[in-house]
Amino acid sequence: MAVICALGSSVLLLTACANADTARSSVAEAAQTESPTGYPTGSPTSTASPSLTEDQAERKALIPMAKVTWDKAADTAVKEVPEGKLVDLELKRVSDEATASPGTPSPSTPAPAPSEGAAEWEAKVAAEDGTVHRIDVDAVTGEVFRTQIEPDQDADDKRELADRLREATQTPQQAVKVATDKIKGTVTSVELDENDDQQLLWSVDVVSTDDWNKTTVDVDAKNGKILREHVDRD
C-alpha cells in the first residue's frame, strides 16, 4: 500500500507539473505573438502613408513636365495678339483635338503640336475689342503651336469682356504675386472672373509640391486684396 500510495503521489505530481509547464508555455507564446494593443510584437506593423487622390496624382505627374513657367507662357501668348491682354491661362495636357485640328500656326513661331498627353499652357488672350484668341503654348519648348479665334462670341460678349479688362487695374502678374506671397507653390492657372457678388477678380491656382493640394486664391482685380482662399484636397 505504501508503494502504491507513493506511485500515486508521483503521478499526481508529474501531472500537475506538466499542466503548469503547458500553462507557462501558452502564456509565453501569447506574449510573443500579441502585444497589449492586439498587434504581434514579433513583426511590428508599419503605418502606410495615405495614397494620392486621382487629381493629386495628376498634378504630381503634370507639373514636373512643364519647363516653362506661367509668366513666360503668358508673355508668349500675349505677343500673338496685337494689343492683347491675358484673360485665362491653364496648365493642362495636350488633347487629341489639338493634334487632330491644329488650328492656325503661329505667325511668329510656327511649331508642330506636341504629342497627345504632353504638357501645354492653354491661354486665352483678348484683343482690344474683346475678341478672344486661344493660344496654345508648348510647356516644354515655350513655342506656340496653335492659335485661333474662339467661336461663338457675339458683340455683347466682346463688349463685356473689354469692359472687364478696362476695370481690372491689377495685372495678372500682380495678382499672382499676392497669391504666391500667401501660398507657396507652383502656379497652374490664372483667370479673370467674377464672383457671386459681381466682384471682378483674378482667380489664381497654386499647387503645393509637398502634398500636391491645390489652393485657389481669389484676388480683387481692382485693389489687389485677397477675397477668398480655397484648398482642394481631392
How would you briefly describe this protein structure?
With 234 residues, the protein is an alpha+beta fold. 34% of the residues lie in helices and 26% in strands.
Keywords:
234 residues; eight-stranded antiparallel beta sheet; 8 strands; globular
Structure description:
- The protein has 234 residues and is an alpha+beta fold.
- The protein is 34% helix and 26% strand.
- It has helices at 2-33, 54-62, 70-78, 96-100, 155-167, 172-182, and strands at residues 85-93, 119-126, 132-138, 144-149, 186-194, 200-207, 214-220, 226-232.
Layout of SSEs?
Elements: H1 2-33, H2 54-62, H3 70-78, E1 85-93, H4 96-100, E2 119-126, E3 132-138, E4 144-149, H5 155-167, H6 172-182, E5 186-194, E6 200-207, E7 214-220, E8 226-232
Antiparallel strand pairs: 1-2, 1-5, 2-3, 3-4, 5-6, 6-7, 7-8
Judged by helices, strands and strand pairing, the structural class is alpha+beta
Q: Major sheet, described briefly?
A: 8 strands, antiparallel
Q: Which percent band covers the strand fraction?
A: 25-35%
Percentage of residues assigned to helices? 25-40%
Q: Helix tally?
A: 6
Query: What is the CA-CA span between the terminal residues?
Result: 86 Å
* Rg, nearest Å: 34 Å
Nearest-integer average pLDDT: 82
